[in-house]
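Quick start: what a row looks like.
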Amino acid sequence: VPIDELQTRYYFRFTTRDACGVLAAITSILSRHGISIESIVQKNVHDPGKVTIVVITEKTKEIAVHSALREIDALDAVTEPSRMIRFL
């Protein structure tokens, strides 16, 4: 199977500003790319004003994941590059 067609679950970690609407923006982008969320957790980090958002997805295609992460990383509220791990 070509990597873009691979379907699996994913772990995402986003580091963002602690502001209203950030979580909604991220979940909206995931939804537009057809990525369904299995679970989501938001935690404060040691840096004041920042939070970590962890998302576990349902099975989805790799190509959708890369497109969504590029769009999420372009948000002003995202302070570090997104992290992704595949669950095979």
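That is the whole record. The radius of gyration is 13 Å. Residues 33 and 64 are 6 Å apart (CA to CA).
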